[in-house]
Amino acid sequence: MNQRPTQVTSEQAQALTEHLIALELQLQHAETRRNKVLLNQLLANGFEEIAASGARFGKAHVLERLPEEQAPWVEAFDFEVRLLSKDLAQVLYKAKLRKAGELQTKVSLRSSLWQLNSLGWQMVFHQGTTVLPATGPV
């Protein structure tokens, strides 16, 4: 964890890092994406997403869309977790993604904001930005 605005032990920081990465990866699994109840638990009521296409989605749209679409193949790596406050964290990472029926794998930079509330850690924001091949290695 790069920033520690609140006093946490290294063990607490490591546990939180592992927990948030696990939640992030859980959202990429096909089983989770098909499960509206689980999605509703993981996404905060005010959730917003800006997709790599530039499209902006709210929670209702995601709950309607994800269970109906075939989950893409995703390989996530180079995770970084930043504790922004005692109840807000940012998860940054890179992802290789290939949508169903497509041959091309795209690479993107990902950023999610996770907020701790009475329901636990919930994602409040996510953005994926495609890395163009001309920009070099990721």
TrEMBL record:
Domain DUF4440: 20-123
Signal peptide feature range: none
InterPro entries with a match to the protein in the record: DUF4440, NTF2-like_dom_sf
Protein name: Nuclear transport factor 2 family protein
Biological source species: Rheinheimera tangshanensis
